[in-house]
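#struct-help
A.M.: can someone run this one for me? Single chain, 294 residues.
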Amino acid sequence: SSVGLDLAKESVQFRVDPETDFLSQVFAHGDCTLAEPLNAVRGWHPEPRLRQELANALLAVPVMGRFPGTARRQRSGLLVFQSGTLGAFPLELQELAKQTALLMTEAHRLQGLVVDAKRALACKPPQPNRLLTLRAQLTESLGDLIGHQQRFLELLAISVDARLHYTRGHSQAVAAVARALANRLGLNEKTVDLVYYAGLLGQIGKFSLPREALGGAGKLSHQEWEALRHHPNVGVGLMMHIQAMGEVAPYVHYQNERWDGSGAPEGLKGRDIPLGSRILAVANAYHAMTCERP
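D.P.: on it. Structure tokens below:
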């Protein structure tokens, strides 16, 4: 019944009644739950210190985990997203929230297996059968985590593209072309994956752009054009918060550079531009020229 949240390094503690509180009920019995308008939700008690009195829509997703000393997984937390705007959580964002919870669940599982493996290695005498079992479980969990991570990135790309009708599917299409080019060039499997992820995340910075700059059929103003040229910078800033995406960030950062040095953000020329960025530029140009869009 005691809830703690980390908001910009500030921990907020407050108490709730598990029998009547809306979020407690979602945690105990619910699945992904969308609630709007919140003033009509039974058991909703806004917490002033979280400025929840300003929220009109809320999305809550339980996270599973394994507690010390137990083998089975159970609910260990609740992801809560809130907005002051009704309709702020369309289906693609709901799917992204659910995938985030799955990613956290698998990460929690992997972390628990690592702890178990360290304990097993410290046992005297060694337990070979136990170690073999843990090795198999760690391999399986790591594979699942990578799969959940890729699905998370795909859903993130869908969410970005969904801002405008004409961009639906754009990021996945660009990523598919980029991966095909990387394979044709004979790049190694890891680099091919990085190029694919860069294609998925290449447009994430457009979250910061106004819709009129993305969807207008007329000529862009100078300010709009400059913002469009530099949107990868915003995307890289967001990606740096995703630990596994550090190697992808340079590909996204330099995707608007041009061979003759006329691009952005640094005016790199020729082979000074990372190969992944050049592949991404070609894939973006190809898709732009072969689909209907302003």
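A.M.: thanks! The chain is about 50% helix and 10% strand.
D.P.: also worth noting: Confidence is low (pLDDT under 50) at residues 1-6.
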